[in-house]
Amino acid sequence: MTALTRFALASLLLTPLLAIAEEDDDVRTPAIAPDAPAEAKPTRRARPADEDSAAKETLLKTEERSSPPTGGGQGPQHSEEPRKKKAAPAAAEAVDASLASSVFSPEGVEVREDQSIFALFALLNASGYDDAPITRALPVPHRSYSAIRDDARRKLAAANVDGALFDATPRSPAALALELAAGHAPAGLAETAKTAGVDALYTAALPSVRTDLKRYAAAVDAPLLRVRKLLALPTGDEAPKTTLYVEVLAAPTFSAGTELADHSIALVVGDAGSGLDEQLARAAARAVFPAALSGAHVKQLAEVHAAVAATTAGAEAAGGDAHQWLAENFVEAAVARSSLAAGAALLDAAYRHGHVLVRDAARVLDGAAKRKPGVSLADYLRAEAGKLDARHASAEFFKALPR
Question: Is residue 38 part of a domain?
Answer without folding.
Answer: no
